[in-house]
Amino acid sequence: RKPLPRRREIVNLREMGREVSESCIDSLLTEMVSSYCNHFYANKPELAARRIEAIGYQVGHQLSERYTMERPRFSDHLEAIKFICKDFWSELFKKQIDNLKTNHRGTFVLQDNRFRWLARMSLDPTADDGVPQDPADFAESKAAQAMSMYLYFPCGIIRGALSNLGIPCAVSADISNLPACSFVVRIKA
Amino acid sequence: MIVCVAVVGHQSFTEADDALKLHHIVHCSLDVVDERVNNPKKSGPTLNETFLGLLYPTENYKVYGYLTNTKVKFILVTTDLDVRDVDVRNFFRRFHAAYVDAVSNPFHVPGKKITSRTFAERVSNIVKSFGLSST
């Protein structure tokens, strides 16, 4: 017979009442990409990509509102980017961005060494004839193109979040160095 | 008594359900907000805080401001004469939480007026309990 939960556990269950399991999110993302690529915009990958990115944009917009709630305002672009790398990424993926680079001219590269939403994908860097491919070549392959469809959503999230913080930008993903994934943010002048 | 609470976004769209005079007060206070935010020398250490404090007292009202990281302004107009700073801060904190929940609604269009009834009820509750807690 299971013992009744102690008081502290009861409180935690109540707090957790509004959470969703991670596998639900994974399934939702998979299904979103599948729906747009195979159903709504079948054979029009550019349109599917743009739609998925737009969904990410709205999500990022709303999440930035929530996650900047208790904080003082950012004094410059770098502060906002650092917020994305640390607090924002932690809220979304329970880890921070591993590496941040900039050319000090408006381009930032946010590198996640093990991006959560790609972690469950099998990536086989060997070509069909069994010979291991160069990771940079892999990036051009069909498998990589399929994988990149899953990156439009997080790119949109970053773009939406920064845009809501007053920083219009373009965001793209770079998977030439798997399993690391880099998000390239180009701030519009 | 709180007579008006306004949410002002990027496009200076106001949601205030009161008379023209209050609209005018809110609009004037927006100028003060801009001035406070754009004059670092005057604002001092509170430049990047969300709570902007008392914007200006008129003969009948006190107007408080709050500016979020996403450049959304909350303006509070009250007829109370002795308002505690901590009460106003609490008010804005709770109001901000309600605002965040309202704009997280997927059917809400950013920039447009918030039409959620839940938001209206929550704001109503926050307004009613303004200044009542004695902790």
UniProtKB/TrEMBL annotation, chain A:
One GO CC term on file: TRAPP complex
InterPro entries attached to this UniProt entry: NO_sig/Golgi_transp_ligand-bd, TRAPP_component, TRAPPC6/Trs33
Pfam families in the cross-refs: TRAPP (PF04051)
GO biological process, one term: endoplasmic reticulum to Golgi vesicle-mediated transport
Family the entry assigns: Belongs to the TRAPP small subunits family. BET3 subfamily.
Protein's name in the database: Trafficking protein particle complex subunit 6B
UniProtKB/TrEMBL annotation, chain B:
Entry GO CC: cytoplasm
GO biological process, one term: endoplasmic reticulum to Golgi vesicle-mediated transport
Family: Belongs to the TRAPP small subunits family. Sedlin subfamily.
PANTHER family (UniProt xref): TRAFFICKING PROTEIN PARTICLE COMPLEX SUBUNIT 2
Protein's recorded name: Trafficking protein particle complex subunit 2-like protein
Gene source species: Linum tenue
